[in-house]
């Protein structure tokens, strides 16, 4: 019988944990320069080691503290990543032990929510995570895709060298504030990691400045050439990060990308699903949606605090019973209304699992859809539209930051 054990690793084991994680993703171990950067996001107390019947490290998980934007506010959250169990030791309960330890750590650190990007969609729901935001991967062909003359515009786009980009982009991102649910803060270590490979020097960095010269958007891309003949325009621009504070900044950046000479394809993964790109184009069919992907998975590790960190729409309160297989303290009934959430002994109008509450928390899915999906049990049908109005959001959540 396996005996999964978990403990916080000391710094001397961080690189071994990172190597183990990368191996579980079928990736090579970090080189010295890669580790130099990655070590900055391995934080004492937050890198866990997993063991099965012995002292050999066979599993790992880690997290980073971030600020997460939620409807009407923001709150501290644990950004979970680096989960891996060695292939010959899987399905013996080690990840279960690692995640349980992470939940306890997040609660102790005053982080009511844990978030992650999942390698597979089937893993995390059983632990109370719900899919809370989505993104899309799109492809456009410059020349066939053009921005309309009446699309928002204002300011200019400039190319920065990578040193100037490395200095300016963190500042610009910070200046935006976490303006949409799902966005998270980016630490200096995150920027240093250069999460979007390859090395920064090979990327082209664009910055958008508004009419008064204030930087209000940026994007970077990697040009990939499929043919080395001088006269063939087989060039794909692969966008790595694209952030804009205003519609004018976003539309101007797209205009610049689509008018770049010799580029015949622009590919952007991880774009918000509600970006109005189709509305800015002369021919909306030029946006080829290659996939609709999971973005953030959200786990409310402290339901009461998490609910009270966001705001709710208008209407009559609803009493909701929450089940949670992993965190007993979360179980029970909550009265949720425009003024927030409080525990109650009243009879519930609706019941749901904490994973479903995580899925609707940022406002991506209408409550009625979760009812139709069988994820909400209804005692009082009149409570469904009320519950929907409380959680409804104008803007869809989007994280836009890999971790
Ligand atoms: C946020 C991130 O870091 S995403 C990266 C996640 N890591 C990877 O994808 C790397 C490759 N995979 C792995 O390392 C491992 O398979 C892990 C970490 C996903 C799972 O570790 P394990 O120790 O096998 O998980 P554990 O034994 O605790 O499984 C718990 C339950 O989840 C199920 N489960 C675990 N992984 C999977 C999976 N990939 N697909 C389907 N079910 C799974 C198990 O069957 C088990 O179900 P049960 O409770 O009904 O028996």
TrEMBL record:
Name recorded for this polypeptide: GNAT family N-acetyltransferase
Active-site residue numbers: 124 (proton donor), 403 (proton acceptor)
GO biological process, one term: aminoglycoside antibiotic catabolic process
Keyword list, A-Z: Acyltransferase, Transferase
Domain of life: Bacteria
Organism of this sequence: Saccharopolyspora montiporae
UniProt lineage: Bacteria, Bacillati, Actinomycetota, Actinomycetes, Pseudonocardiales
KW Heme (keyword) present: no
Protein family: Belongs to the acetyltransferase Eis family.
